[in-house]
């Protein structure tokens, strides 16, 4: 790696883990409060900590890590180093995001932005908090544009050649992010900022939630797709196999681009301000977005099985024995995959209208996203870190680091088993999410929930130990002996079909996604703006 590229990538990765540490402290404390184990000193509020935890973990850790990781793959696969303009855009993006994160965190610490990570109106934060969010979004756009420019240049110099898979996937991920963030940008710029400055007196709550979830669901795929890049391209190389199918991998990313955006209403199924017809349409599209994950599962099983059989594995699951269990680069992401099976099944429960009524706003949902983003995605990101840091800093990944990484992964899994397991269970018993410690005047139901909340706090404490272990591991990676670590990029199997050229026609896919968004949102949003929708007929809309 060019030293200037390494600096840009490392700056993103280290900032991501700094946020993980701060978010971990907030998470530990709020978990202990909710479990009734501690009371907070100095006027610090439960919801304030919950906001800090959600923002730092779900928004800051992920976004910095993803941009750093994607920049590394784009540099590696498109010419070996970044174009000066792409690198400069990366740094401009980093600076804007970091100013935004600093201002936003100060606002949360001052208790002027205690609005949780979804910042739903009519809860109001300081306008500076919303401006900070806008800076983070604009900063991330700069980095996305940097990656697009790098790919464009590569295409120009390489003619009709198929772009490298990593670059294709990175561009699809950043494109998804760009289209998705337009929704939250409109919400922040045209609704939240004017309202919080007092320039307008009222805010259309239903519209603001809709714009948020237009962004909020593709957001979860913005977290997931970089993990899929690792599963599709990096894992085959680490286990000594080939990428099962380039075409299948690209198709699944295109499907994410198409179907992850027009589905936000599945977060709003219980809201009376949207007609059932539009909810139904978006739920159908939600089930469409499950398909690329099923394709991914199929592709991964195919990779593992064909590779295992080529090494002589027998029986239905004999291939499991042929996997490199002692290699943390494999172990951590693989555990992420394994957990994604129940996590994804939980998502399908959520998306099913009748079952959503049971789980909505309960701790089940918190359990769901701690399995998806905080386990499948986070463990994959941790697994990437073990080779990425030494690869860009010219150091070796020592056998001791493999052991420490595996110990960290197991700690994480144990903590999450207790925490997310009890969240799912107590959610089904009706315990609401986003609620500080209360026994509801000793109501028998609430008393029944208490032991689960204590287990959640125990799981959260184990996870905090996992965060500390990860930070220690990073310090050790930075101090490892000088040497070489491979940047593992898999090659496509010789048996795979050739990839159709249409997969690279970005104009076609962007047009289709625009049409789908217009179909899914035009009528309900027009209703919300004009006040002629179901919400205007006497229902409360928040
Ligand atoms: Fe979700 C709520 C539906 C996936 C994150 N989700 C949330 C929230 C978050 C979140 C953060 O429909 C809370 C938002 C808030 O604060 O209110 N989700 C889904 C569906 C999927 C899904 C249908 N979610 C995710 C992912 C996330 C994430 C991924 C983060 C990264 N979710 C919902 C719904 C709600 C929701 C509703 C709203 C609930 C409410 O009412 O509030 C699907 O994409 C899932 C598809 C996944 C699969 C699994 C495929 C399995 C694979 C692994 C293969 C394993 C191998 C290893 C090969 C079908 C690819 C094998 C090894 C062996 C040894 C066997």
UniProtKB/TrEMBL annotation:
Transmembrane segments: 7-29, 49-71, 91-110, 130-153, 165-193, 213-235, 247-265, 280-304, 330-349, 369-389, 410-430, 450-478, 506-523
Keyword Iron: yes
Topology with respect to the bilayer: Multi-pass membrane protein
Domain Cytochrome oxidase subunit I profile: 10-479
Matches recorded under SUPFAM superfamilies: Cytochrome c oxidase subunit I-like
Molecular function GO terms recorded: cytochrome-c oxidase activity; heme binding
Family: Belongs to the heme-copper respiratory oxidase family.
PANTHER family: CYTOCHROME C OXIDASE SUBUNIT 1, CYTOCHROME C OXIDASE SUBUNIT I
A GO BP annotation: aerobic respiration
Keywords: Electron transport, Heme, Iron, Membrane, Metal-binding, Respiratory chain, Transmembrane, Transmembrane helix, Transport
Keyword check for Protein biosynthesis: no
Annotated source species: Paenibacillus thalictri
PROSITE patterns for the chain: COX1, COX1_CUB
Name of a matching Pfam family: COX1
InterPro entries: Ba3-like_Oxidase_I, Cyt_c_oxase-like_su1_dom, Cyt_c_oxase-like_su1_sf, Cyt_C_Oxase_1, Cyt_c_Oxase_su1_BS
Places the protein is found: Membrane
Protein name (Swiss-Prot/TrEMBL): B(O/a)3-type cytochrome-c oxidase subunit 1
GO CC entries: membrane
Main localization category: membrane
